[in-house]
Amino acid sequence: MKKVPVETGEYQTKKPENKGTLLYKMHNLSYNISRKKSKNCVLCIKLIAAESRKTMNMSTNGLVYTNDNCIGCNRCIAACPVLTANSVVENGDKQFVHVDPDKCIACGACLDVCEHHAREFDDDTERFFADLRRGEKISILYAPALVANYPQNYRYILGTLQQMGANHVISVAFGADITTWAYIQYIQKNQFQGGISQPCPAVVRYIENFIPELLPKLMPVHSPLLCAAIYARKYMGINDKFAFLSPCIAKKEEITDPNTHGFVQYNVTFDHLMRYLNRHGIGKTPVKEELVSGLGTIYPMPGGLKENVRWFCGEQVFIQQSEGEKKVYETLHKYAKRVTGGRNLPLLVDVLNCENGCIDGPAIEESKRGDDAMLYAISQQKAEHQAKGKGFWNSRKSCGARLRMLNRAFSKLKLEDFLRQYTDRSQEHKVLVPQEEQVQQIFRKMEKRTKEDQSINCGACGYSTCREMAQAIFNGCNIPHGCVHYIKHMVETDKEKMERISEDIREKNRLIREMVQDANGQFDMLTGSIASMAEQNANTADESVGINESMQQVVECTTKMTDVVDQINGLLHALEKNNNGIERVASNTHLLALNASVEAARAGAAGKGFAVVANEVRSLSQSTQATARESNRNKAQISTVLKLITEDVEQLRKIALDVNDRLRNLAASNEEIAAAAQQINEATTQLHAHFQKLSQME
After folding, report:
1. What is the pLDDT of residue 542?
2. 508, 494, 557: which is closest to 683 by C-alpha?
C-alpha cells in the first residue's frame, strides 16, 4: 500500500500499476480508469482511492473539480467567465455545480469565490516527487512569482529540490526576457499591429475556444515558460524532464497542448509544493543560480509585459492593459469588435487572467492571496537592479541603446525556435444561442410568462440576466428550478394546493360526523323495534303477526345501518388518499421552502420579502403534515370500530331473519322467541357501545 498525500491530508490506495479497469461512478457520471495505464497519474490515483473509500471525492476529471462540500450556492457560476463551464446537477435531494472539464479554462475564479471549499484543483506535484524519488532526471524551471511569494526563503526551497535530486534550476524570468525580445523582433519584421500577449494560458484557451476571430492577433510567440524550456533544451543541451514551479493551474493546459511540443512535463503549483515541503521539511542550503535574468523578473505583476516593451521601445508606444477574471474576457470581446470593425489598434494588448497578475495566481497558498507584500517584493527587486545600473536595467541609457543590448544578448537565438501556432477549438466549444421562441418556451417552463418576470435579473442563479439563465438551460447547463422565482412560484402553487386539500379533508370529516349521527338515529329506531317486540312477546303468542312486523323493521334498520357503514368506509378511503396526498405535497413544499430560503438569501435585498413567504409556507407544510398524520391515525381507529360494527350488524340481521322464519312457520314457542329477543338485546347493547366509541372519535 502506498500513501498518496492530497490537499486535505493523506489516504491509502493500491498501487496504480495494478491490472484491471475501474468503473468510477459519480453523480450519474462514469469514468473508465485503467490502473495499468495510469502511470502514477495523481488524478487516477485519487479516483481509485476515492472509490476504495466509497466517498464522493470528485465530480469531474478536469483540472478544477467539485467536491462534496458544494451546496449549490451558484457563486462559482457568477464568477466564471464561461457561460457553459458549470452545470447544475441534482443528486437525490442535493443540488451542486459540476465543472465541465472541456469548457473550463482553469482560470481559478471559482476557487477564489467559493466560501465552502467545494472547489479543488489537480496538478503534477505528487507525480513529480514520485519520479524524483525514483531517480528520474528532472530540472527545475521556476516562475518569478516564486520570488515574490517567498522572497526570504525561495533560495532554500529551490536548494531543497536540488538536494532531493533536481539537476538544473533555471528562472523563467530569463525566458521572459527572450519572450520580450521575440515579441519586438516579430512586430518589427512583420509590421504586426494590435497583437495580444499570451503568457497567460487561460487567456489563450479562452480565445481558442470562444473568440477564434482573435487568433490571428494572438502573438505567435511562446510564453516565458516555454521560451525558457526551449532555450534550456536547444541552447544549453539539457535533456532532462522539466518541472515548472507555478502559481497557475492553467499551465497544465499549456504544457499538454500539442502546439507546445511537450517541452515541459510537470506543473508543480506553489500550494501543493509547499504542502509537500512543509510535511517533509525545507533544507538550509541555498540554490545555485545558473542564468541571470533582466527585466523579465517583473512579468508576473500587472502590466509587467507592458513595462518591458516600453522599456525597450519608449513610453510613446500605446499598449492596452487589462487584468481580472471577468474584466479581461469582456475586454477581449470588445477588442474583437474593434479588430473586425477595422478600427485603430494599439501596438499590443497586455492581458492577464488574474487581477493582481501571476504573483496572485489561483494555485498559490491561500494565506498569501491578496497580499500586497508580493507586489512590493517584485518592485524592490526592480529598484535594486536599476540601482546597479547594469545591462538591461541601465536607466541612464536610451530605449534604443537598451534594445540594441537586448538584441546583442540574444543574437545567437533563432526567432523561429520560439514561435508557436494556435488551434481553433471553437466548433467543439460553441455555446448554442436559442431563438426567441425557444427562449420563450424555456421561460414558460420557468413560469416566467411576463416581460417583468423575464427581466428580474436578481442574479441568484449565478447569471447576470434571466436570459443568460435561459441560455444556460438551453445548453443543458442548468435546470428551471435553479431559479429562485421558479421555486417561489412552486411554493405558492403548493400552498394553494394544500389549502384546497385541507378544505376537502374538513368537508369529508363533516360528512362522516353526519353519517355517525344518522347511524345513531337508526340505532334509536332499532332499540324501539326491539322493545316493541319484547312487549308483544310478553303479552301473548297470538300476536306473532305484530312481532313479525317489528322484526321486519329490525331487518330494515340493520340494512340501512349497513349502507351507512359502507358510506363511512368509502369516505374514510377517500380521506386516506387525501391525507397521503397532502403529506406528499407538504413534504415537497417543505423542501421547496427550505431551498427557497437559500435562494432568497442569494438574491439579497430582492429576496427578503420572499424569505418571509418561504418561512410561512414551511410552517404551514409542517402543521398540515401533522394534521394529515393525526387524521390517518384516527382513520385507522375508526376503521377498526366500523369493522366490529359491521360484524355486529350482520349478526343482528341473521338473528332477525331467523326469528322471522320461525314466525312464518308458527313453530316457535314463547321461550324461543324470548331467547332470540335476549340475543338481539345483547347484540344491540354491544352495537351501542361501539357507536358510543365511534362518537367519541369525531
Report:
1. 53
2. 557
Please give the helix or strand (H or E) that residue 267 lies within, else none: strand 266-269
Rounded Cα–Cα distance for residues 695 and 112 (Å): 66
Instruction: List the beta bridge partners of residue 119.
Output: 66
User: What pLDDT is recorded for position 289?
Assistant: 74
Strand partners, 245: 142, 268
Q: What's residue 620's pLDDT?
A: 64
The structure's pTM equals 0.70
Q: What angle do CA 490, 467, 457 make, to 5 degrees?
A: 70
3-state secondary structure 504-571: HHHHHHHHHHHHHHHHHHHHHHHHHHHHHHHHHHHHCHHHHHHHHHHHHHHHHHHHHHHHHHHHHHHH
Taking the C-alpha atoms of residue 121 and residue 139, their distance in angstroms, rounded to an integer, is 24
Letter for the amino acid at 28? N
Count of Cβ atoms closer than 10 Å to residue 309 Cβ: 20
Residue type at 120?
E
Share the mean pLDDT of the chain.
78
Q: What angle do CA 292, 295, 299 make, to 5 degrees?
A: 110
Q: Which domains, and CATH codes, for the chain?
A: 2-125 (3.30.70.20), 126-360+371-411 (no CATH), 436-476 (no CATH), 484-696 (1.10.287)
**Residue 206 grid cell:** 479562452
Joined grid coordinates for residue 596: 427557497
Q: Which of 679, 698, 647 is CA-nearest to residue 516?
A: 698
Residue among 148, 196, 204 at smallest CA distance from 173: 148
- Mean pLDDT value across residues 496-524: 74
pLDDT at residue 498 in the model: 74
665 vs 559 pLDDT, higher one = 559
d(CA 84, CA 430): 9
